[in-house]
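Why predict the complex rather than its parts? Because the way molecules touch one another can change local conformation, and only a joint prediction can capture that. The input here totals 566 residues.
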Amino acid sequence: MAEALLEVRNLSRRFAAVDALKDVNFSVDAGEVHALIGPNGAGKTTFIHHVSGALKPDSGSVHFAGADVTALSMHRRVAAGMARSYQITNVFLGLTAIDNVALAVQGRQDAGSSFRFWKPVRREVALFDEAREYLVQVGLEQRIDTVAGNLAHGEQRALELAMALATRPKMLLLDEPMAGTGPEESARMVELIEHLARHVTILLVEHDMAAVFRLADRISVLVNGQLICTGEPEAVRANGDVRRAYLGDHL
Amino acid sequence: MAFYRPAPYQKPVAIALLLVLAALPFGLAAVDQAFYIGFATRVLIFALAATSLNLVLGFGGMFSLGHAAFFGVGAYTAAICQQAGINEALIAFPLAMIAAGAFALVVGAISLRTRGVYFIMITLAFTQMAYYLAVSARSWGGDDGLPLVGRMTLAGVSLADDTHLYFAAFFGLTVTMLFFGRLADARFGRVIQAIRENETRMEALGYPVFTYRLVCFALGGALAGLAGALLANLTGLASPNLLLWTQSGTLLVMLIIGGVGYLYGGAVGALILLCLEEVLVGFTPHWHIVLGLILLGVVLFAPKGVAALFGKRHG
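Output of the joint prediction:
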């Protein structure tokens, strides 16, 4: 078995009287696509926030690439190789597609300091050459100089992925990448994620069950803040607890 | 707000502007209006101060009500330097920038941990503290402020001549605008504008947001300090009123009239506000009423400021 890239140990978090997460143990192996599913309000978003570093747990720990990152802020986790995309599209609408990705490249530590006050960004050829590659990877090579605000919704989601890739992650944390996309866009996104999965480990949070079962190597199910099941897609589909949580109608 | 991008016509306009400003004191002297050289110097100094606020607010997205504190610290540093026997601006002005920048670093390190209205309140609290400190410091003149016994020298040339001081301010503003324009289009400018637009996203791209904000805030503070040191030379006084939060308000009004987030927003606003004041004061002591109406008009009809009215948006 591959080594765990991400390991979450005994993670708990309370909001007032509500146990948002109860003693969650979870791991993502290097190279796999691991999907996290669960009914609305199960705590998926809270969980993601703890993985990415937006929230800190009451107890438990998060380990990434062999180091305890529980106390690290979000930007340090990104530097360690954990990139995320957002549930709502979160690109800079006033910048062109390539400017968006170049900004992501620029944020990487090996891209040099950003405390540069004199040279115009546009003349930093290396940034833009690299940014172009990521846009090609996500299929936006026709839209390089389009202002992000003028891109179609699905294209913005792809741009978002290109930005995440530009941080050169070990693991991509995709928070509902299909949200709000139509069937065609959705199919393209599945293809794209399949393509990316060959190069990078993916933790996928998604409602679209067809996509999840097509993409995931393993699936974990979160219900009421507890992880009730982790396993290969077929095993999860057959699991009685999971069926009850979903009332049988999705699976 | 859009990201800054230098407009194609920017360079020729800037060069033309430089020539006009360089000729201005001689023109004024030729038509026997040398009195206005002092006024023009004041405009340049406030243009510098409002521009420094533009860096913090317009580009960095930090709504600070404490900017006057750095302005005032610059003025006091100049006066204290002179009191200590340093009469050379080449030493005193950089010291004023360092003192104001360092103070901004401290204020920023504390207040940038908060957001929104709390940030406004904390920066306001810091200016008021600085104000009361200045008022109660006997050795710095207390209420009366700390006077300069005469203007300083710049590289040995006395600034006592109005034209000399004008050129000192002109040089300060020119270098600042050049630096500001380059910065806005360089990596650093990209980063601070992107943080202004979406802080969380930048954090998620791996940027230490707090550090960038703090550096931007301190830079703005240092530039305000330079403006303060120049103003102390112009008026011959480091007054506690410079530290008062209403002074922050004046700089804000200038910036809003001129155009928040536009490269020349601060300079345009300073020019308009000071000219209005100069003209309106001649008609009525209650000129603030007229100013209020004009401000209302700007907000209603040119909500992005006067600089936004020129050509396509490039700021």
